[in-house]
Structures are given as C-alpha cells and as structure tokens.
Request: fold
Amino acid sequence: MVKPVVKDIFFLGQKSEEATKADLSVVQDLRDTLKANVGRCVGMAANMIGVKKRIIIVSIGFADLVMINPVLLNKGTPYETEEGCLSLDGVRKTTRYQDIVVEYLDENWKKRRQKFSGMTAQIVQHEMDHLEGIII
Reply:
C-alpha cells in the first residue's frame, strides 16, 4: 500500500527498532511507496512511511533491494557530497564513503553480506542514517 511520506523531524530523528518477521508487511508498503515516488526518490527507510523499524529499500536500477536490520561493517574513502531527501526540502551537505560493506537480512530472513560502491553505496548510507535518526 502506498503510504504518505513522513516529514515530521521529531519522528524522523528517533532511532528505529530491530525488525522481526512480523514486520515483513512493511516491505511491500516500502516497495509501493518507492514506486509511487519514482523520479523523486531512489531509496526509503521504514520511518519515512511512519514505521520505526530497521528496514530500508534501495533502487539499484533493475531491481529494488530490501535490507532488514542492516549493519555497516566496513567503509572506505570518505568524500563530501550534497543530498536531498523526500522527507525534507532542499539539499544538504554530508560525508559519505565510496565503498561500504553491509550485512543484512533479505526478505527470506537469510543473512547476506554485500559490498556497495559509488552512488548505490551513497543511497544505502543515506537510508541507514534514517534508521539511526540521523537526518542530513
């Protein structure tokens, strides 16, 4: 179901809780809401649709990658950039890392470990920041 995008800074500034198998319905809501905002958005965190659970979705071109309870294991060279967010107006400066390694659960509750680089790494970092209550 397409959900409204949360713009409440107080809500977005709170840390998200670990997701459980009972939270899997959130994945479809994230998919639907990301699709409804195509062209304006390349990733979402569950708190952006009002759910304080550690679930993100990232558009990687040919598919959407869902990450449940993601953990950043490794980060490479930092760089400065500007980002926008569907929950905020305008763009803001931030520091990101060119290469990252993330461990997460997929939709089948299987543990995965994946390396991301470039723009995909940047999007993953942005969405993972949402889980920590960090707003660019």
